[in-house]
Design goal:
Udp-n-acetylmuramoylalanyl-d-glutamate--2,6- Diaminopimelate Ligase, Chain: A, domain 1; alpha/beta; 11-stranded mixed β-sheet; 3 domains; Protein-Tyrosine Phosphatase, Chain A; 6-stranded mixed β-sheet; UDP-N-acetylmuramoyl-L-alanine:D-glutamate ligase
């Protein structure tokens, strides 16, 4: 492709060399550079790509894109140099151009927020598949190009991988695509250049403080997705969250609201609830819908997710009652409040909850269901929680999560999650700091996650609930840089079969 064709959508501050040349590829990883490639030097969070420019020149890179003026040569070199305001933005927009601007050929909807992104994006994918469309999905759990499953490595892929996947969707005939949009992806401009038909906001609570440093920066990063929507797009926001209207205050898009508590464009209320689903009253100002529907999902947080899915379907032109009909038959997403019933009569729940708010939401839901069934039991049901925190991540949330889990559980077991490069014992001590010495006497600390889960299941009696929180869909543990197979589902199912 001609270099000049790739420069649409962003400003080049300084050019050294010719832009009237053919290029053979775009790379942001210096190790992948081949003759004729463009190398985009990014500052990065660990290493600075500018340091590898000489190496890329030796490999035959024909163009260097950079945003650090100190690395700009003073005289013509072997390659063309382009100084830009932001290498991250340039990479995103060049990737979009390189792959033929695929987002323009799709109804692309981005889902952002702290919790609920995976459930919302995945169920939207399933909804539109049921409606007979070819659909793409980009999620934390797995990516789909229509029916083709592609492993996911990040919540939102890097700009080149992202646009490559969108281009595959277009080639496969997809007309809709739903993607999770992480705060990292927005901050690092991996989505630069993409045209969104709509953006959805779930909620906002503490997360990724190791990266964003302040909550305000985290919030404003999420908000940027809505700030960049055009006036033909739609935005749907959660007004039960105090940041819901902050997200949309500067957007040019048409704004819709949803709520489980207040007047909104889309409203929902739980009428009945059990571990296998809930009966809801769903209302919509659009189309004057007011009806009851049973869904195989549980919890007020899932009512919010379903309202967001419902609103998105309607905003994309689908009949409201048809959306609700299909939602009533959609199963929970892998690792999101998944229930496993044991032969002994206890219920295991596997959930990805790995933030304080998510842990509290899941435990509150369990508590509400247990309380509603209390009259049917001879003795109160126990809620046994197994939870850990990941290594090399926000340490500040560790004591908060332990505090919340303790307050909403009959028995708490602290264990390992993905310790990564940290010592599991040190992570458990950080969590334990959220509890008093007397409270810690009532807590079990079992570093080995498999042993912790087995212990919880062994303690459970008929009617009890065992929550395994933190990993959800993940089928691995990372310990000292080594990735081991580990699946919460496998252990809980083995325990559930034991009589």
């Amino acid at each position: 492709m001609k270099l000049q064709e790739l420069l649409q959508g962003f400003q080049v501050l300084q050019t050294l060399g010719s832009t009237d040349i053919e290029v053979s590829g775009i790379q942001s990883d210096s190790r992948r550079v081949a003759p004729g490639d463009i190398f985009v030097a990014q500052a990065g969070t660990v290493v600075d790509g500018h340091a590898f420019i000489p190496q890329c020149i030796e490999k035959g890179a024909s163009v260097i894109v950079l945003d650090n003026p100190s690395h700009m040569p003073t005289t013509p070199d072997k390659a063309t140099y382009l100084l830009v305001k932001s290498s991250d933005e340039a990479l995103g927009k060049m990737a979009h151009n390189w792959y033929g601007q695929p987002s323009k050929s799709l109804q692309l909807v981005g889902v952002t927020g702290t919790n609920g992104k995976t459930t919302t994006a995945t169920l939207l994918y399933r909804l539109f598949k049921e409606l007979g469309h070819k659909v793409g999905l980009l999620s934390t759990v797995i990516n789909y190009v229509d029916d083709q499953a592609i492993p996911a490595t990040h919540t939102t892929p890097d700009a080149l991988s992202l646009n490559a996947l969108l281009a595959q969707m277009v080639q496969a005939g997809c007309t809709y695509a739903f993607m999770e949009v992480s705060s990292h992806a927005i901050a690092q401009q991996r989505i630069a250049g993409l045209e969104f038909a709509g953006a959805l906001f779930t909620n906002l609570t503490r997360d990724h403080m190791d990266y964003h440093k302040t909550f305000d920066h985290y919030r404003d990063t999420k908000k940027a997705l809505f700030d960049h929507l055009d006036k033909q797009a739609f935005a749907i926001t959660n007004i039960d969250d105090k940041n819901g209207l902050v997200m949309t205050q500067n957007t040019r898009a048409h704004v819709y609201t949803y709520s489980t508590r207040s007047m909104a464009d889309f409203r929902g209320k739980i009428l009945e609830e059990g571990f296998d689903g809930m009966l809801l009253r769903m209302q919509s100002i659009m189309g004057a819908v007011n009806t009851e529907v049973f869904v195989p999902l549980v919890g007020r947080f899932n009512v919010s997710n379903l309202l967001l899915i419902y609103g998105c379907g309607v905003a994309l032109g689908v009949d409201a009652m048809e959306v609700l009909r299909i939602l009533s038959g959609l199963a929970p997403v892998n690792g999101r409040f998944e229930t496993i019933h044991s032969q002994k009569g206890w219920t295991g729940i596997i959930d990805y909850a790995h933030t304080p708010d998510a842990v509290e939401n899941v435990l509150r839901t369990i508590g509400e269901i247990v309380s509603s069934n209390a009259a049917k039991r001879e003795k109160p049901a126990q809620v046994i929680t197994v939870v850990g925190c990941g290594g090399n991540r926000d340490k500040g949330k560790r004591p908060i999560m332990a505090r919340i889990a303790f307050d909403h559980s009959t028995q708490l077991i602290l264990t390992s999650d993905n310790p990564r490069d940290e010592e599991p014992h040190a992570i458990l001590q950080d969590m334990a700091a959220g509890l008093t010495a007397d409270e810690l006497h009532r807590v079990l600390m079992i570093e080995d996650r498999a042993s912790a889960i087995k212990t919880a299941c062994a303690l459970a009696q008929t009617g009890d609930v065992v929550l395994i929180a933190g990993k959800g869909h993940e089928d691995y543990q990372i310990i000292k840089g080594v990735k081991y197979h580990f699946d919460d589902h496998e252990i809980v199912r083995d325990c559930a079969r034991l009589v």
